[in-house]
């Protein structure tokens, strides 16, 4: 597994601390990759067991490497610190949803071609997040309410779903 180590400053976007990984650095990790990139990371050599995460594409070839609280606490770092970042492609990453698509979501999704296309265009990590949430729903009312909302935002309506602002199906 090829590892890349470089120096970077921890910055913040909204409430999310991150390190920017340039397009040149990404090509050294996994050439030609355009989707969320599964990697293992260490900041200043911590945590002892490298942390698994997806780097998120920025749209210009560079990627955001968002730093979880676990990583920042282990490395005793904060926004503004210059850190040593070690990144390697996570070849053991297994893509795809952890939970199956429940029929109460699958049937209405397949009946809505625009929403279905948007669903398939979502990054696997976002699909996984939604399906994990859906797996926690118990009442029929909650399921119906959430299916209606997700179909609206996937169909292109602006709105909020799962604490995110959605626009144009994303």
Write the SSE topology.
Elements: E1 3-9, E2 11-13, E3 16-21, H1 23-29, E4 37-43, E5 46-57, E6 63-66, H2 69-75, E7 82-89, H3 103-111, H4 113-121, H5 124-136, H6 140-154, E8 159-161, E9 164-166
Antiparallel strand pairs: 1-7, 2-3, 3-6, 4-5, 4-7, 5-6, 8-9
Helix pairs in contact: 3-6, 4-6
**CATH topology value of the largest domain:** Elongation Factor Tu (Ef-tu), domain 3
Distance separating the two termini:
33 Å
Q: Which secondary-structure class do the elements indicate?
A: alpha+beta
Q: What is the share of helical residues?
A: 25-40%
| Series of secondary-structure elements, N-terminal to C-terminal | EEEHEEEHEHHHHEE
Rounded radius of gyration (Å): 18 Å
CATH architecture identity of the largest domain: Beta Barrel
In one word, what is the shape? elongated
* Overall tally of domains: 2
Q: For the record, what is the CATH homologous superfamily label of the largest domain?
A: AF2212/PG0164-like
Largest sheet: 7 strands, antiparallel
CATH class wording of the largest domain: Mainly Beta
User: How many helical stretches?
Assistant: 6
Unreliable segments (pLDDT under 50, ≥5 consecutive)? none
Report the strand count. Answer: 9
Spatial strand order of the main sheet: 1-7-4-5-6-3-2
Strand content: 25-35%
Mean of the pLDDT scores?
92
Notes on the structure:
By secondary structure, the protein is an alpha+beta fold. The protein has two domains: 87 residues, Elongation Factor Tu (Ef-tu), domain 3; 64 residues, no CATH class. The chain contains six helices and nine strands. The strands form two sheets. It has a seven-stranded antiparallel beta sheet with strand order 1-7-4-5-6-3-2. Strand 2 and strand 3 form a beta hairpin. Helix 3 packs parallel to helix 6. The two termini are 33 Å apart. The model has no long low-confidence stretch (mean pLDDT 92).
